[in-house]
Design goal:
The complex is a heterodimer of chains A (about 250) and B (about 130). With about 250 residues, chain A is mostly helical. Chain A has 13 helices and no strands. The relative contact order of chain B is 0.09. Classes of the chains: A mainly alpha (about 250), B mainly alpha (about 130).
Amino acid sequence: MGIIENIVEKNGLVFAFLFVGIVMLFSFWVSKHITLNKVPGVAIAIIIGLSLAFFGGEKGISNVPLFAGVAMLGGSMLRDFSVVATAMSADLSKIKQAGLAGLVSLVLGVTISFVVGVLIALSMGYTNVESLATIGAGACTYIVGPVTGSALGASSEVIAISVATGVVKTIFTTVGTPLIAKKIKLDNPHSAIVFGGLVGTTSGVVAGLAATDEKLVPYGALTATFYTGLGCLLCPSVFYLLLRFLGA
Amino acid sequence: MKIYGVALLAACFLLGKLLGHLLGHLININSDVGGVGFAMFLLMVSSIYLRKKKWLVPETEKGIWFWSSMYIPIIVAMASTLNVRAALSGGLLAVCAGIGATMACMALVPLLSKIGRQKNVDSRKKAVHGNH
């Protein structure tokens, strides 16, 4: 056993290919034979991934030494690299057409997430402006939250809540997108661009669209990638000042 | 050779990240703003240009298509490395705020999708009309 563990730990990334391959194989088999193609294989694979992550720690399953390589495969470098590659199947003219809609959805998406986050925090008894702004920022993405929190000097407990809020958003988007897609008419490149801008969490948008319709992924990713930056720009500055102005 | 395609993808990726960081620097946040988006644009534009020049042969493209088809397994790997436990133990506030914000934004998709879309339908009608 010692030898096998040694080989796997030294070749983590290669083992991750095998691991994910097996998860995919199993998921597509379940999708075809058990759900009779009603639930997409990709969605099942993602849900298996999330459930496995639950048994891990801060970095999900990769906290288990045997699965450390999965963190490299699922890390931001390879994720961004492969998402950029999907641009090959995107249609430039469709993007041009949705340019304005994408821009509006980005600004509205950050604003609405922030406002909803602040309102819910307010209803649960938070009154400190810095805490409210940090949790509102966390409702944008799990990166905007801590960036805003540390800029405003929020407490580490509040920053942790803001990160958790962002992760909940990512997971909810991943699981919820295929379920809600029909109701919100998310079935064409145009609405995928709007969806990416409104929801914004790149990992959630990409995973959710992949589970809905693979063809939509590049369009959603295109706008979502600007969201975190926009959030980091607006939340600790304009939004915080507005909030302080309203509170005073 | 496939590596030419991978190299083109890498060039677009790195240049896009550079642009993203420059934009971030410009607006005073120390992070990447839209780097992936810029990289995607660069790849789309450069592949159209290179295809016209007949430099982008199918064999080269295969190097890019490989990575394009790898994103789903990569997303599955990413899902299994998320901090799911923290998300669930972040308390009611984190769960409510996360789900509430997402639902509010998702609900607006049909409305905002109308921007720039109506014209599209009109212009297509006109185009069809014109062809007759």
